[in-house]
Design goal:
Chain lengths: 273, 273
């Protein structure tokens, strides 16, 4: 059994391409349709209700592309909208939180895990809940880091200024002796090098993009949804607004082959308010 | 003749409250209805078409509040959507670009003006066009500073890290010998202190919020639209999504008396795409 329909991946913007990169390395024969909601990015400071509504709209657009699976390549959306998405669509839905939490539990030795992300992700407590569901004895210290996304989008990936902001955000977590740090935003793998420079051996990094890709592979195998061997594995990228500087940064940093970027209009659903 | 209808002010988010602050100081008897599109903030990296469509939607909501005048308290919107807004609504529309450009021309002595703003504002060339329309001999050096808004929203207003990022962004402009700097984003007046610390006497700052408020006062006088003396001058604030941390930062930094914040749903217009 095999299934050549594409994997549908969506994100609030372009950060989810880190998940695409991890998927392509792990599953080179899978076709991927990526949808980034750049017209409304970022979601990180928006309310749960609004993020949920946007997520349904984007998933519907992926279903129109005949997706066999929906990957929520966005921590903010994964932290608030997975139950609603699973209830609304017939295909499997995979987010980044659960795989990241599992990897963190597997790696921590002192059972003290740090989590960084956008304000919405941290406020949701989603990682804390997922970690505690796996191990009630785990201690979780979280911090919202709203400057990291714009620093990454500026392309200041190897930069003293960025290093100083990382120190400001992370030093309190390190002094509380976390031994594992979940990079709870799909942008953050692009700062993994900078974080390792700052804290080196003191902390193990959990990259939500890589762990999400592993979870996708496992699910495709379980459900016999893998593409046939030899499938060309095209990548299509669509955005809801014209791409800005960050697409260039991501392309370079991730070395992703992206053809022409398509422009798509969001079909608005009726607001719940 | 007087007119007690409110002044309608809108912005992509909460930054436009710097304009509200300037309006209240200059026109304490005017009622103000402020609308911040926090559900879709920020506009700074979005396309001109999208920003124009959002602007029409917000102005329509202000007209439903019986606004006598629409103030576009957002540089991004002012830089791309003023002609469309003026064509679409019967009340006067005032943005922040034209007043800021006039003030800069009045202040520069060496006719070399710097402009900082979001990517969309700088890319639009709106300040450059407005400055050149006033004086063909003016030289304009612009720079997009996408990190300043998140730094302000983080509340790091008097902070070494912020000072270093300001230096990174502004040093090239200072070494090119601008003598006047337009703060081309309504958030930026909250960093005026930090910029003065960094460059002190080397550069005169043009605060787009203050100059916009002066232009509003002038227009109300010209058209006999001032509120009656003794009018209580209420301030109503409505947002399209729940307020986040930045409302607290702005309230404290601006010392604005804001009552209960209303939540409003955007009425979507048909997309042009």
């Amino acid at each position: 059994m095999s299934d050549s329909r594409p994997i549908g991946v969506f994100d609030s913007g372009i950060g989810g391409l880190t998940v695409v990169k991890a998927l392509r390395e792990l599953l080179p024969n899978e076709a991927i349709f990526y949808l980034g909601d750049t017209a409304r990015v970022p979601y990180g400071n928006k309310s749960a209700e609004t993020v949920e509504r946007y997520a349904i709209e984007l998933a519907r657009m992926l279903m129109a592309e005949n997706a066999k699976l929906i990957v929520v390549a966005c921590n903010t959306v994964s932290s608030v909208a997975i139950p609603k998405l699973r209830a609304s669509f017939s295909v499997p839905v995979i987010g980044v939180i659960e795989p990241g939490a599992q990897a963190a539990i597997a790696r921590t030795q002192n059972r003290h895990v740090g989590v960084i992300g956008t304000r919405a992700t941290i406020r949701s407590g989603a990682y804390e809940n997922a970690l505690r569901a796996l191990n009630v004895h785990v201690r979780v210290t979280s911090r919202a880091c709203p400057l990291l996304v714009p620093l990454i989008e500026e392309g200041w990936l190897n930069d003293k200024l960025t290093d100083n902001i990382i120190l400001r955000y992370l030093e309190p977590l390190i002094s509380e002796e976390i031994d594992t740090l979940v990079l709870g935003c799909t942008h953050y793998p692009l700062l993994a090098g900078a974080i390792e420079r700052a804290f080196g051996s003191k902390v193990k990094l959990v990259d939500s993009a890589q762990n999400c890709a592993s979870a996708v592979k496992e699910l495709l195998d379980q459900r016999s949804l893998r593409a046939p061997a030899g499938n060309p594995g095209n990548l299509e990228v669509a955005l809801t607004d014209a791409p800005d500087n960050f697409l260039r940064v991501a392309r370079e940093a991730l070395q992703l082959e992206i053809g022409e970027v398509q422009l798509r209009e969001v079909i608005h659903s009726a607001p719940a308010l």
